[in-house]
Specification:
Blueprint lengths: L1 H17 L2 E4 L5 E2 L4 E8 L4 E8 L5 E3 L5 E4 L5 E3 L2 E3 L6 E3 L5 E8 L8 E6 L6 E7 L29 E10 L10 E6 L6 E6 L6 E8 L3 E7 L2 E7 L4 E7 H4 L8 H5 L4 E3 L3 H14 L6 H7 L2 H24 L5 H25 L14 E3 L2 E3 L13 H13 L8 H10 L6 H11 L7 H13 L1 H24 L5 H18 L5 H7 L6 H11 L5
Parallel strand pairs: 13-19
Antiparallel strand pairs: 1-3, 2-12, 3-4, 4-10, 5-9, 6-7, 6-11, 8-10, 11-12, 13-16, 14-15, 17-18, 19-20, 21-22
Helix pairs in contact: 4-7, 6-7, 7-8, 9-10, 10-11, 13-15
């Protein structure tokens, strides 16, 4: 009897072995996050079990939902998860110091014909996809290319504002169309027209992309993919190539600066590759310095806040100086980083003073210059400021404050005199209507309104000229009180943007006389020519 039982047991063991198979380190084709790694797959006639390691930064949280499923790569079948061990479905859990959590997922048995499948789940909190899990191959070590040798980047070009194009191309390493990732995008803002253009970056099945960028000066921009981004610097008539490992780009992060930090194998190629590497290194070095800005904005007194911002700028500039003098940094990246830091610093002061309702305009003038070895830089006078990633936000801040200021008021005497200097002779009833409208405190009668409307129709261009002259005077005084010299390139750019906005509102080309008059304060030749080129067009 015992011999018979032993025979049955041995036969049963052999049957179990034949009906069970385990794949260690199964190969996979692509994934949209490194959070999930399938360590092994157990196949039985009764179930399919996936042994999985979840990995996130320490003390971050995750929720595994109960919507996980296995799909055949060809779409022939789908099986839903039956059970999970190691965590509870639909309940948040935290990663410990070792950053890992081991889980087991049980699914119904897979068809015998299945040799590859996709693992998909967690749609409520951000879908996770592992594509092409193999049942006959093991994962080979992924060898990412090292950073190639680069040549020194060319000097910064002269700012001409001439329309041109550049090409951004490259490849997302580890891409697959079944990851269902969105197309990339790049948002470009024309500094003169304010027109914002979102350029879609289609990604081919092999992960490659190529897109043409309309530029009129160099830019520091970002290639955006979903909620992730890759910064880059590019110039007109330039081609820049990127090699971006998706596993690094899509890694979890606690602070937004970690997105770039995670991309340790990012590769730039092209004539400005070296400048891109240097700018990246500077951003990573300076990221922690700016981490506590929001807290300082809320909690520090004015004197402590100013001192804190000044100290941060000093530390950054000293580091840049050391690296530049040690020849670890090119003059190109050095100057661009100085401008980036300067405009970030000034913007932080303006934001604080605006929130706290502090009027310290004259205080900004003491920050006009930056002394560096062998030179003094005046950022506000520098046309290369347009390349700074912080310049447009700075300009927008200044314009926002100007727009919220008290509107320009006219007295009837000023208005009549301004028309007179433009050879407009007013009738007695028109002068009286202006006195009632501009000086009086009583309601304007329909008859007075009709006279004013006729006057507006008769001398529309003259009134536009009057308004622009008064705006220029007010802008010059405001800028001088805040920053000192009204001849700065930055002041000219503010005037240029105002003239272009006027052209946009008129829906017609400016006359040669209007262009000459309205651009009188714009003395930078390329900027002046660009404004005239834009406003010569008949419409927007």
């Amino acid at each position: 009897m015992r011999a018979f039982l032993l025979l049955l047991l041995s036969l049963g063991s052999a049957w179990l072995q034949a009906a069970e198979h385990t794949w260690i380190a199964p190969a996979w084709t692509a994934r949209n996050t490194p959070v999930v790694t399938v360590d092994s797959i157990l196949l039985r006639d009764t179930l399919s079990r996936l042994y999985i390691t979840l990995k996130q930064p320490p003390h971050t949280t995750l929720t595994l939902h109960d919507d996980w499923e296995i799909q055949d790569s060809l779409g022939n079948f789908t099986v839903r998860i039956k059970d999970v061990d190691g965590v509870d479905f639909n309940r948040i859990f935290q990663f410990d110091d070792d950053s890992t959590v081991a889980v087991e997922m049980d699914f119904p048995p897979l068809p015998a014909s299945c040799s590859e499948f996709d693992l998909i789940g967690n749609k409520p909190s951000g879908e996770i996809r592992v594509i092409g899990l193999s049942l006959n191959r093991q994962q080979s070590p992924v060898a990412l290319s090292p950073q190639p040798a680069t040549r020194p980047s060319p000097p910064l070009p002269v700012i001409t504002f001439e329309p041109d194009t550049a090409w951004l191309q490259g490849r997302f390493i580890g891409y697959h169309r079944r990851l269902n990732l969105p197309a990339g995008k790049i948002v470009l803002t024309n500094l003169l027209t304010r027109q914002q253009t979102t350029i879609e970056v289609p990604v081919a099945d092999d992960g490659t992309f190529a897109v043409q960028l309309p530029l009129c000066h160099p830019v520091q921009q970002k290639l955006i993919l979903g909620d992730r981004y890759i910064p880059f610097y590019i110039e007109p008539d330039d081609t820049l190539s990127l090699q971006i490992p998706l596993d690094e780009l899509l890694a979890p992060y606690r602070n937004i600066r970690e997105i770039e930090q995670n991309c340790t194998h990012l590769i730039y190629q092209g004539r400005n590759a070296q400048a891109n590497y240097e700018l990246r290194q500077i951003r990573l070095q300076e990221a922690e310095t700016d981490d506590n800005w929001m807290q300082a904005l809320r909690t520090l007194s004015p004197s402590l806040y100013y001192r804190s911002e000044e100290n941060k700028l000093k530390v950054k500039l000293e580091r840049l100086n050391r690296d530049w003098q040690a020849q670890k940094l090119s003059s190109k990246a050095y100057l661009l980083s100085i401008l980036n830091n300067y405009y970030l610093f000034i913007s932080h002061l303006i934001v604080y003073n605006t929130i706290k309702n502090i009027n310290t305009d004259s205080e900004y003038s003491k920050y006009r210059k930056i002394d560096i070895p062998f030179a003094t830089i005046y950022p506000l006078k520098e046309p290369l400021s347009v390349v700074s990633e912080c310049y447009l936000p700075f300009i927008t801040l200044l314009e926002s404050q100007a727009n919220s200021a008290t509107p320009l008021d006219w007295t009837s005497v000023e208005f009549i005199e301004a028309l007179k200097t433009r050879n407009v002779d007013l009738l007695p009833e028109e002068k009286e209507a202006l006195r009632l409208a501009l000086d009086g405190n009583t309601a304007i009668t329909p008859q007075t309104q009709a006279v004013i409307q006729q006057l507006n129709n008769r001398c529309e261009k003259e009134q536009i000229s009057m308004r622009e002259e008064k705006l220029r005077q007010w802008s010059e005084e405001s800028y001088r009180n805040r920053f000192g010299s009204p001849d700065d390139f930055t002041r000219q750019l503010l005037d240029a943007r105002r003239v272009v906005r006027l052209w946009q509102s008129l829906h017609r080309a400016l006359t040669i006389r209007e262009q000459s008059e309205f651009t009188i304060t714009i003395i930078d030749p390329p900027l002046r020519f660009a404004v005239k080129r834009i406003t010569s067009r008949p419409d927007r």
